[in-house]
Amino acid sequence: MPKLIIDSKEVSFEQGQTVLEAARENGIKIPHFCWHPKLSISGNCRICLVEIEKLPKLVISCSTLAAEGMIVHTRSEKVINARNAVMEFILINHPLDCPICDEAGECKLQDYAYKHGTGESRFVEEKNHKDKRVELGPHVMFDAERCISCSRCIRFCDEIAKEAQLTFIKRGDRVTIVTYPGQQLDNPYSMNVVDICPVGALTSRDFRFKARVWEMSSTASVCQGCSRGCNIDIWVRNNEILRLTPRKNEEVNSYWMCDHGRLNTFKFVNENRVGMPYIKSGGELIQSTWDAAVNKAASLLKTVNKDKTAFIGSASASCEDNYILMKFARSVIGTKNISYYKYIDENFGDDILRRSDVTPNSTGADLLGMNGYLNYSNLSDGINNGSIKAVYLMDDNIVDKDPSLEALFSKLDFLIVHSSNMTKTAGMADVLFPSAAFAEINGTLVNFNKRVQRLRPAVALKEADRSLDGMNVSRLDKFGTGYDRWAQGRKRDALSGWKIISMIAAQLNNKFKYDTAEDVFNEIVRSIPEFAGLDYELIGKNGSDLKVKIAQPTLKA
Amino acid sequence: MSVKKRAKDLTLLERIYIPEIIKGLALTLKTMFRPKYTMEYPEEKFVPPPSYRGRPVLVLDENNEERCVACGLCSRVCPSLAIDIQASETEREKERYPERFEINMLRCIFCGLCEEVCPEEAIVMSKDYEMAFSNRENAIFGKDKLLVPVSQLKDRIEFLRSYK
Ligand code: SF4
Ligand code: SF4
Ligand code: SF4
Ligand code: SF4
């Protein structure tokens, strides 16, 4: 490999890499605003200037190719003076309204002003005024005064979202960003520009002013929106999810996620939850206790012939939950009637990230052996012709998707439901268990590409203790007491599916011995060859590929 | 270093104490005619100087609008985590305002750091030192108790500006 010298350290690089990339790979930090690892090089911010021996002037490291024997200085006096000057120049017209800017705390300009600025301004004239609060699209707000014209947002739309929607107009200090005439910034990936904007010029209209970034904890997890399983961080304050942001994973989603995943897959965790177990009595769901609901479910399960009971798992539930449901159906009840629904939406998929399979774990369910897909008609037929008399349903609001099931379900002897939210399906249950949402549990999902990825609890359940259970904590979580309103966010009395089922199994004299989701996973690893050799630690933050090929079973009509 | 005399070494005059008692009474008498430093509180109220740090309050400006932009810096700097803010959007030029602003007076230690960090001169230490609560809920002051017209805070603001 060719080598160059950066700050008297010899580093090797690959032919074609720029100086900035070579430095970055070797842990030498060169500041940059406009350069982004996944976007084309525009070289307009000038903050990455470095000194290269034998070249007459400073050069921008983001677009200078590294060459054998180059001697680069990133901290010489000349470079530092140039950086100070660039910082001063960028800050001349910057409004410095950090107190009202959502970016504060995660702003490149703030960070670099500390590190590379001189700390004072010589500019006494009136600053430029431009438009503020411009709605560029349904999800993104633009503040033209804060923009430093790095063009990252423009390049993102052109190159990653593949929809040219943004452009610069005017020149010099009047330059600003607009959408093309008659257009909006409304591509399915539009909100990524909020993440990559190095300043607070582009902000999320959904998250705007909800919280300061330093007040929240962030937990590495996986998006529920489709079978891509984009890696995300879940941001929580006072036990409430406030936003999701993409987490870099080159194997899955790179630096991005889609707007649907970002906006529509977490609000159900905060709202309209099933708060406790319920038992139906006189046509009404009546609040109950765990013991009573578990007893009731166990005794109901004894009343119907095992072959007339159907177990329906979920492509949205974790592998752990589905595995235990299967184990329960097979070994405790003794039926093979186990299946799950697959949800395909051809309009959703695209050739960027979004997949037509809009559930996060159908591959996992298949691998576990749940692959006798149900579909609406064969479940309906079964209920109609009396071959199915009871249904045990975990985490799937199927009545909402097929309203005709509403009438059919009332013919059943009983319906037992696990649900995190008060849905139509939950309302029809004879016994309803509050189940934990994806952001409240440990578990694994397998994406369309057979990559096993971890869910981690970001929101604490009633049974959980943030610190003792090793959950990520914010400063407020750490120091709050039971007397502080800002630390009393509601903790739901819900449980993971595998825990609920284990309780019912125990009632039916079958002890399932698991303390944690990890115990369940370890059993999956032992009993299902596709998962062999994996453990939670190995899966880690970035997930781990299963080496197997699975035959895609065809959907029964 | 003075060496204390032992009782057996005292002179007669010292041993009978009378001159010492007279000296003491004279001091008492003299002090009775000196200006007083104590007050008949609560009949008489103490009005503190501008440097005094009473309970922190939020400033309502001349147009009866709150100055606070809910930046959260006071809440971040507060060493005792007394301040809880929920920001929200407003039509006003400064975009943000505190939808909720609460100071837990049982947590506050009157350090004045919130006042020092505020970029808007929106939170200042008042002269109010009279706080008594009979339960924890009452000790949490919301905007209703916190907002004070700027006219009542003139001295403190002038005092702060003189140190800028
Ligand atoms: S809006 Fe942000 S990302 Fe776009 S050019 Fe301006 S500073 Fe760069
Ligand atoms: S592409 Fe799929 S997994 Fe990724 S953010 Fe969108 S919905 Fe979520
Ligand atoms: S005076 Fe000190 S303790 Fe009290 S609210 Fe302000 S920063 Fe917090
Ligand atoms: S520091 Fe000032 S402006 Fe910011 S939230 Fe506190 S009182 Fe409001």
Give a topology summary:
The complex is a heterodimer of chains A (557) and B (164).
Chain A: E1 3-6, E2 9-12, H1 19-25, E3 49-52, E4 59-60, E5 71-73, H2 77-92, H3 108-116, E6 134-135, E7 140-142, H4 152-159, E8 166-169, E9 176-179, H5 192-196, E10 202-204, E11 217-222, E12 231-237, E13 240-246, H6 259-264, H7 267-270, E14 278-281, E15 284-287, H8 290-303, E16 309-312, H9 319-333, E17 338-339, H10 362-368, H11 376-384, E18 390-394, H12 398-401, H13 405-409, E19 414-419, H14 424-427, E20 431-434, E21 443-446, E22 451-455, H15 475-479, H16 497-507, H17 517-527, H18 536-539, E23 544-545
Parallel strand pairs in A: 1-5, 16-17, 16-18, 18-19, 19-20
Antiparallel strand pairs in A: 1-2, 3-4, 3-5, 6-7, 7-10, 8-9, 11-12, 12-13, 14-15, 14-20, 21-22, 22-23
Helix pairs in contact in A: 8-16, 9-16, 9-17
Chain B: H1 12-16, H2 18-32, E1 56-60, H3 73-77, E2 83-89, E3 96-104, H4 113-117, E4 123-125, E5 140-141, H5 143-146, E6 147-149, H6 154-161
Parallel strand pairs in B: 1-6
Antiparallel strand pairs in B: 1-4, 2-3, 3-5
The complex binds iron/sulfur cluster (4 copies).
Please explain how this structure is put together.
Chain A is of the alpha+beta class and 557 residues long. Chain A has three domains: 3-91, Ubiquitin-like (UB roll); 123-270, Alpha-Beta Plaits (2-Layer Sandwich), CATH 3.30.70; 278-460 and 495-545, Rossmann fold (3-Layer(aba) Sandwich), CATH 3.40.50.740. Chain A is 26% helix and 17% strand. Chain A has 18 helices and 23 strands. Chain A has a seven-stranded mixed beta sheet. A five-stranded mixed beta sheet of chain A has the order 2-1-5-3-4, sandwiched between helices. In chain A, a hairpin with a 4-residue loop joins strand 6 and strand 7 (140-142). The longest helix of chain A is centred in the first third of the chain and has 16 residues, at 77-92. The radius of gyration of chain A is 27 Å and the shape is elongated. Mean pLDDT of chain A is 93; it is low at 552-557. Chain B has 164 residues and is of the alpha+beta class. In chain B, the strands form two sheets. A three-stranded mixed beta sheet of chain B has the order 4-1-6. Chain B has a domain at 56-163: Alpha-Beta Plaits (2-Layer Sandwich). Chain B is elongated. Chain B contains six helices and six strands. The A-B interface holds A 98-100, 104, 132-133, 208-212, 214-215, 476, 479-480, 483-486 and B 69-73, 75-76, 81, 84, 87-89, 94-96, 102, 104, 119-120, 136, 140. The structure holds iron/sulfur cluster (SF4) (4 copies). Residues 223, 225-226, 228-230, 253, 257-258, 260-261, 353-354 of chain A line the site of one iron/sulfur cluster (SF4).
